[in-house]
């Protein structure tokens, strides 16, 4: 059964928004600006991991479910920052392709490999925008009879959700712009960038 309560999110700092790019970097002419720096991401991961570790301190095993590929960077950092025993599972869902917004039609490309019945599940998300894919995933996981299902998401775009999904563990609310970095991509590029940046419209409107 899904058990979640809304939680306030932090706002990216003015320093991050004013960040200057290395002119020699390959992405310098493709990223409009940085909105969350590498240091801010690192600090937020530690904060979220502390909260989850506290809430599940009496749990002998926490199951993290990451959604390929966007959540990989966050999930790796988050898992290492937790102070409770964890297992990790990954699912691959298709709803974007090379588009910039979710189609709302979800296909499972890779399912969970183990039995999650009676487990405490924390779904690790990179970003929540329309919420359609996440809403579908939560219903799917609920059908597998876990003890509980919670969500931790590094990013959310408030005001664009098409379904109501209260999130218990949230990193940052960000503007409704197309962002990349820290696992987020456009056409499979930019995932490796250590910050969150806004992609210039001319890159994806070609």
TrEMBL record:
Signal sequence coordinates: none
Pfam families xrefs: Pribosyltran
Any one GO molecular-function label of the UniProt entry: nucleotide binding
EC number: 2.4.2.8
Pathway: Purine metabolism; IMP biosynthesis via salvage pathway; IMP from hypoxanthine: step 1/1; Purine metabolism; GMP biosynthesis via salvage pathway; GMP from guanine: step 1/1
Gene3D superfamilies for this protein: 3.40.50.2020
Ion transport keyword on record: no
Record InterPro entries: HGPRT, Hxn_phspho_trans, PRTase-like, PRTase_dom
Cell compartments where the protein resides: Cytoplasm
Limits of the Phosphoribosyltransferase domain: 43-186
Swiss-Prot/TrEMBL cofactor(s): Mg(2+)
Gene Ontology BP terms: GMP salvage; guanine salvage; hypoxanthine metabolic process; IMP salvage; purine ribonucleoside salvage
Family according to the record: Belongs to the purine/pyrimidine phosphoribosyltransferase family.
NCBIfam families: HGPRTase
Protein name in UniProt: Hypoxanthine phosphoribosyltransferase
């Amino acid at each position: 059964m899904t058990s979640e309560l809304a939680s306030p999110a932090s706002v990216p700092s003015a320093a991050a928004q004013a960040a200057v790019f290395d002119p020699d970097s390959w992405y310098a002419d493709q990223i409009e600006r940085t909105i969350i720096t590498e240091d801010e991401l690192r600090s937020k991961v530690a904060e979220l991991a502390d909260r989850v570790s506290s809430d599940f301190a009496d749990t002998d095993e926490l199951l993290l479910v990451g959604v390929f590929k966007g959540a990989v960077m966050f999930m790796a950092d988050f898992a290492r920052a937790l102070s409770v025993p964890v297992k990790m599972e990954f699912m691959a869902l298709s709803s974007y392709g090379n588009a910039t917004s979710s189609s709302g039609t979800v296909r499972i490309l890779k399912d969970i490999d183990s039995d999650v019945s009676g487990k405490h599940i924390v779904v690790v998300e990179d970003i929540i925008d329309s919420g359609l894919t996440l809403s579908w995933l939560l219903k799917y996981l609920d059908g597998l009879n876990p003890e509980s299902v919670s969500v931790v998401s590094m990013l959310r775009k408030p005001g664009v959700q098409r379904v109501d999904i209260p999130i218990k563990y949230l990193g940052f609310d960000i503007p409704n712009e197309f962002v990349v970095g820290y696992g987020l991509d456009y056409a499979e590029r930019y995932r490796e960038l250590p910050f969150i940046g806004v992609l210039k419209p001319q890159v994806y409107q070609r």
